[in-house]
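Allow me, if you will, to draw on your knowledge of protein folds for a short while. I have a record of one protein: its chain in single-letter code and its fold written as discrete structure tokens. Kindly check, if you would, that the fold set down in the tokens agrees with what the sequence suggests. Thank you for your consideration; the sequence and its tokens are set out here:
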Amino acid sequence: MYYVLLLRGVNVGGKHKVVMSELKNSLKSLDYHRVSSYINSGNLFFYSEKDKKILRNEVTIFLQSTYEFPIPFALYEREELLNQNLNLPDWWQADFARKDVLFYTNDDQKMAMQDFVEEIELNEEAVYIGEYATFWAKQNEASFLKTAYHQKLLKTPLYPHITIRNGKTYTKIIQLLNED
């Protein structure tokens, strides 16, 4: 099975430094195969015969024992993300000033995100709650500071536990999954 491992908040602004080459070698030592990464922000890909639940547990233990800071992460099978991508609304392909994909790091976050989005008023934004991530687009970069994304989401208890990729990075991840 081909997996995607998305780490939250590593190598951002000089904080929570994780050397990708070292991390890839460590994952290989856990018997993960063909380990690769994309950019330095914790986007990893690998093959494993292990069940996703076992992998989640192994990755959790490894990250906790290796790094002095917590690293929430999302772990998906390739097909999960590719199928979700096929079901995105048409507006996701439109030209927006800014697009972000908010990946869930645990099973409760989809429901929490749905509840959050139902309670807010969107300001020049479009939101799609997917099975494994929320897709959030902003019409106007100049009004970003007035968006619910900026004014409300960043202040929620949910925010520190999701891992976010911009639209370009998400597109590249999907491309890499399709190529392999």
Summary: The radius of gyration is 16 Å. The chain has a mean pLDDT of 94.
